[in-house]
Specification:
heterodimer, A: alpha+beta, 8 helices, globular, B: alpha+beta, six-stranded antiparallel sheet, 7 strands, about 20% helix, elongated
Chain lengths: ~200, ~120
Amino acid sequence: MPAYFHGAPVGSYYHQRDARLSGFVPHRPGAAKSVYAMMQHIVHGTIMSPYVSLTSSFGVAMHYALTSGARRATRSEPAYVYQIQMPDPPSGPELIDPVDAVTHHLFSDRSRFDYRHDGPPEFLHGVISPVLFPHHLSDPYPQPPPSGGTPRPPKLSIELETLIRSLRDAEVLSEYPISAYWVVSRYEVSEEEDGEEGEDQ
Amino acid sequence: MIYTYRFRSRKVDLRGKIAGAPGIEFLAMDLYLQPPSPLGRVYIARDGVPQADALRIDLDKRIFLDHFDEPAIEAAVQNAARQIVAYIAQNESRPTAVPANLYIPIEVQNGQAGNPFGD
C-alpha cells in the first residue's frame, strides 16, 4: 500500500497526542457508517464521524499542518505531518476512496444520478474556489430561450461537491483505527518566524 | 529536525465586518498569500475577551473546521464562515503563482539538512 499522510496543526487532537504511540482512531467510531455520512464528513467537516481522513499527498498534509492551526506553527511549537505505511488488506485496513464510493453510490441507483450541475462551464470554478471565483457560484443558471421563470444559481449536489473536495485533498478514509505500528514518521514543520520574511501586516 | 517553510500570510481585519454569534466577535484572519492556501485562522473574542487560539477555516468549503456544542452558536459561526469567504473574495487579492522553492524547507535550501522526502 502506498504511503499516506495526516497533517496535525498546532492545537489539533493529534498535535496534543502523539499518533506514533496512539495511532489514529475515528472521532465517533460507533457512529453510523454510510455514503451520506462520508459525504458529510468531507463536505461539511462533520466531527461526529466514524472516519479518519488521510491523504496521499505530503503537500496537502503540510498545508493542513501549517495553515490551519489554532496558532501559527513556529520552531518552538511546530506542527506535525505524520507518515503512515500500512500493509495491504487483509492484514491492513480496507481504505475508502471517496471518489469510488460516491461513484458506486450513484451508479447503484440511476434515479440518484443527479450529480451533474446545470450551470455554465465556469460554474465549477466557483465551486472549487469561491474566494477566487465567487460570481461563478451565484450567477443564474442559463436556460433555453426565451428563458424566464425564477432565476436561481446552478444546481450543486453533495455528490459533486464531495468529488471535488476529496480530489482537492487527495483524500482517503478509514473507518477502522490505524495502528500506531503503521505510523512510521512524524515530520516537524514550521513557518518562517516573524521578523524574517514571514507575515505581511 | 524542524523543517521551516517560507509561507507568507496577511492579517485581515474583520472587526465590525462579520455578523457575530452570541458572545462571539470575529476580529481578524490570517490569510495565506504564498501559497494561497484555502485554509486559514480566524481570531475571535468570546464575551469581549480575545482568544489565544484561533478557529480554523476552510475557505473553499466555506466552513469552520472547529465546532461548538451549542447549536445556536454553531449555526451562527458556520454562517459567519460564509460571510468571511464573501468578504475575502470581495476585498482581498492574492497572487496565484508560488515561488519554485516554496515547498523546499529552508534548511534544505541552506544545506543544513538532508532532503526530508528522500535523497
